[in-house]
Specification:
Layout: H1 2-32, H2 37-42, H3 54-61, H4 69-99, H5 103-117, H6 125-135, H7 141-164, H8 169-177, H9 182-193, H10 195-211, H11 216-219, H12 228-232, H13 243-278
């Protein structure tokens, strides 16, 4: 009995610790977004001092020479939409047809996306800039979204392959008896049953693309074409940083991701459960 209580208490403490690690950064970002510049440097984690809710208005309007948070938000929506949709379509197609290969070929083909996941993005920035500059795609949010889709493909393939490889063979065999080829089987049978898994991997891609800065700050140089992470950095110059509006902008940027997560939370959990059932 005591052992069971001790293990239950340890498990609760572990969950509480993990929750604190996840929640506390968001709490401090929100706290600092209401602080003045002086209080941030004097007592950054304190609850006393001058509260400056005007930081959110300044973040929304943008710094002098900027275009405002609403424009950054629309650019982020465009980039994320292109990246997530293309990564889901091509990643799902690749993962499904890889899952149909014999086991020894499957492991060899999967080495390609596996190796791609360990290549740091920062190592590719110079080639990306040279390519975009040569093709005239600098300051193009759509082109950056296509690039992000390519960067999301390796992880998308690996995650969806784990789902498709355990997809019931009986369903594929039944569709073959009905005269459906592999492509029609994928779109008419596999995709409708894979929506939770597709939503789960799309949410992971959305979170990464929404906050990505290294590529965007190089390829989106014009203020009118910048995304939220790059636009927020315009409050920082070579001589000073206006931290209040920066933290306020980060707080505003977090809201859409939280909304998407809470809306699709049950669907994503069901997708994970379905993956376990197919095993």
């Amino acid at each position: 009995m005591r052992t069971a209580r001790a293990s239950a208490g340890a498990w609760f403490a572990l969950k509480l610790g993990i929750s604190a690690i996840v929640i506390l950064p968001f709490f401090f970002i929100l706290l600092l977004s209401f602080r003045s510049m002086t209080d941030i440097y004097r007592n950054p984690l304190g609850l006393v001092g001058n509260w400056v809710p005007e930081n959110f208005l300044r973040a929304w309007n943008g710094p002098p020479g900027g275009t405002g948070f609403s424009n950054y938000f629309l650019n982020s929506i465009l980039v994320v939409s292109v990246a997530v949709v293309l990564a889901a379509i091509f990643g799902a197609l690749a993962a499904y047809f890889i899952s149909l290969l014999p086991a020894h070929w499957r492991s060899r083909v999967l080495m390609v996306p596996l190796i791609a996941t360990i290549i740091p993005t920062i190592a590719l920035i110079i080639p990306f800039f040279q390519m975009f500059n040569a093709w005239g795609f600098i300051n193009s949010p759509v082109a950056v979204g296509v690039l992000y889709a390519g960067l999301c493909l390796p992880m998308t393939i690996l995650i969806l392959h784990a789902f498709f490889v355990d997809f019931p063979a009986e369903l594929r065999e039944a569709s073959a008896l009905d005269g459906l080829g592999h492509v029609r089987t994928f779109f008419t049978i596999v995709v409708p049953l894979s929506k939770p898994s597709l939503l789960a991997v799309s949410l992971l891609n959305l979170i990464w693309v929404w906050g990505e800065t290294q590529v965007a700050i190089v390829l989106l140089q014009r203020a009118a074409n910048q995304t939220i992470p790059v636009g927020v950095l315009t409050f920082q110059s070579s001589f000073m940083s206006d931290l209040g509006p920066i933290f306020a902008g980060l707080s505003l940027a977090t809201v859409p991701v939280l909304i998407v997560y809470f809306v699709f939370n049950k669907t994503i959990s069901r997708g994970v459960s379905m993956g376990g059932t197919f095993r």
